[in-house]
Automatic annotation (TrEMBL):
Coiled coil region boundaries: none
Keywords of this entry: ATP-binding, Magnesium, Metal-binding, Nucleotide-binding, Nucleotidyltransferase, RNA repair, RNA-binding, Transferase, tRNA processing
Protein's name in the database: Uncharacterized protein
Keyword Magnesium applies: yes
An example Gene Ontology biological process: RNA repair
Domain Poly A polymerase head: 3-122
């Protein structure tokens, strides 16, 4: 039995990147041997085991054969006679097809180290074209390493274009597509993910709502601003808002577009809600300094600031990013939203009740005072 560290941990160590997860491949062993040594089997598709102490994943060396459509259409063969080179051959990119032995020696049969030095994302074998998920994975790696000067090999891009045009992308599950998109949004250069998908013809198939971004003169400016946002949720909201604006989608129709996108991708509720709030209120917020009390109260109510003040900081970052992108000279959104929240809380309903207001009159008086308080804000 021989055990090797493989994949991302080897790649990132050579790049000088921090290593968060480690994957291992076991050569020359059977499932029975792994279980006898205390490893716990997981997954039904291929033999992966959890180390009894570290909790890390150990997979038996395996080969694979295409048997159907999509990401899961493979038959796997794992046996003690499968070599390390055979296991590495099934991987997507050469920079992910390296293995490190316990003594630190490197197995690199497909030139991954050289491609790291040349800053190239290159597929390992023609079998790359059997897995449509690799289109998204390569785009995500491009978004991660763009700042280091990485580019996609022409022959790899050609295979990605082939996958984008032969219908295989349609077999990807929404969960898989969202997982890769979410991870790409968190990379150092998230806009590169969209750029690569456009280049290989996959953007319109998977994220047609963002097609309008490509080719628009304002897209490079937004691409430069996105990394300043700390969360994928905020980046998603700003992307949605920008795409709808560039596509000239009216505010009344934007909600329908966002809800359709999030439903199709099975995006988490937090992403959907953030995008809906930002798209619905950004125009009013950017004009807040010139707005009257009624308009300011509408923005505050639309953002539900009274009940959800914990969202102020995150929403403010989205609004500030959009203001910078649109070159709008607007007050800092954090200050504006905090001031609106304070205006809403300046009058307590209990105080109005003590003054004799009740029923419909109570609601009307509370709204009047909140409107007047919003009007007095200096921005």
């Amino acid at each position: 039995m021989q055990i090797y560290l493989v994949g991302g941990a080897v790649r990132d160590r050579l790049l000088g990147y921090p290593i968060y997860d480690r994957d291992w491949v076991v050569v020359g062993a059977s499932a029975e041997q792994m279980i006898a040594q205390g490893y716990k089997p997981v997954g039904a598709d291929f033999p992966v085991f959890i180390h009894p102490h570290s909790g890390e994943e150990y997979a038996l060396a395996r080969t694979e054969r295409k048997s159907g459509h999509g990401y899961g259409g493979f038959v796997y063969y794992a046996s003690p006679d499968v070599t390390l080179e055979q296991d590495l051959l099934r991987r997507d990119l050469t920079i992910n097809a390296m293995a490190e032995a316990p003594d630190g020696s490197l197995s690199d049969p497909y030139g991954g180290q050289e491609d790291l030095q040349k800053r190239i994302l290159r597929h390992v074998s023609p079998a790359f074209a059997e897995d449509p998920l690799r289109v998204l994975r390569v785009a995500r790696f491009a978004a991660r390493y763009a700042a280091l000067g990485f580019s996609i090999a022409d022959e790899t891009l050609a295979l990605m274009q082939q996958l984008s045009t032969d219908g295989e992308l349609g077999y990807l599950s929404a969960e898989r597509v969202w997982q890769e998109f979410d991870r790409a949004l968190g990379e150092p250069s998230p806009a590169v993910f969209i750029d690569v998908l456009q280049r290989c013809g996959a953007l319109d198939n998977l994220f047609g709502e963002f097609t309008a971004l490509q080719g628009d003169p304002a897209w490079p400016a937004l691409a430069a601003l996105l990394p300043q946002l700390p969360s994928s949720c905020e980046r998603f909201a700003v992307l949605c808002c920008a795409a709808l604006r560039i596509a000239s989608i009216e505010a009344d129709a934007s909600r329908q577009h966002i809800e359709a996108l999030c439903l199709r991708l099975k995006a988490p509720k937090a992403f959907r809600d953030q995008a809906l709030l930002v798209c619905a209120q950004y125009a009013g917020l950017l004009r807040l300094s010139q707005a009257d009390g009624d308009t300011r109260l509408d923005v505050a109510s639309g953002l539900d600031l009274l009940r959800r003040p914990e969202r102020i900081a995150s929403l403010a970052r989205c609004f500030d990013t959009l203001a910078a992108w649109l070159n709008v000279d607007a007050p800092a959104a954090q200050h504006s939203l905090q001031a609106l929240h304070e205006a809403l809380t300046a009058t307590a309903p209990a105080e109005l009740m003590r003054q004799g207001f009740k029923g419909k009159a109570l609601g009307q008086e509370l709204k009047r005072r909140q409107r007047d308080a919003c009007a007095r804000i200096e921005l």
